[in-house]
Amino acid sequence: MSLSDEIELGIIPKWNKKRYLFSDGNIEKMKQNILQTLNELCNYLTISYVYPLLNGRLLFNNDSSEAGEKPSNELRTRTYKIRCNMRDLLEQLYSIEQNKVQFD
């Protein structure tokens, strides 16, 4: 099972179950945005871009000069935006929890 399979078949369906719905609409929306961002990342965890190694790490697909350009030209720039978006979403989520703790 690949990382993208684990995300698309494990994590996303699990967190979309009814028991994982948040009563706070803002937190629920944030959860959905995080899951959507993970799903976007899965578009780049394919054999076109990377190969999974046995130790769980990923290796860039550079079988040819064309394939080698794809990770540097597409993967880096597109996943950077996705990773920055995920960072921002997680920072928002953590700030909600910190604010909640301060008020309790």
Key features?
two-stranded antiparallel sheet, 3 helices, single chain, 104 residues, mainly alpha
Mind summarizing the main beta sheet? 2 strands, antiparallel
How many alpha or pi helices? Answer: 3
General form:
elongated
Q: Give the low-pLDDT segments.
A: none
Alpha carbon gyration radius: 17 Å
Describe the structure.
The protein has 104 residues and is mainly alpha-helical. It has one domain. It is built from three helices and two strands; from the N terminus they run ααββα. The longest helix is centred in the C-terminal third of the chain and has 39 residues, at 65-103. It is elongated. The N and C termini lie far apart (42 Å). The mean pLDDT is 82.
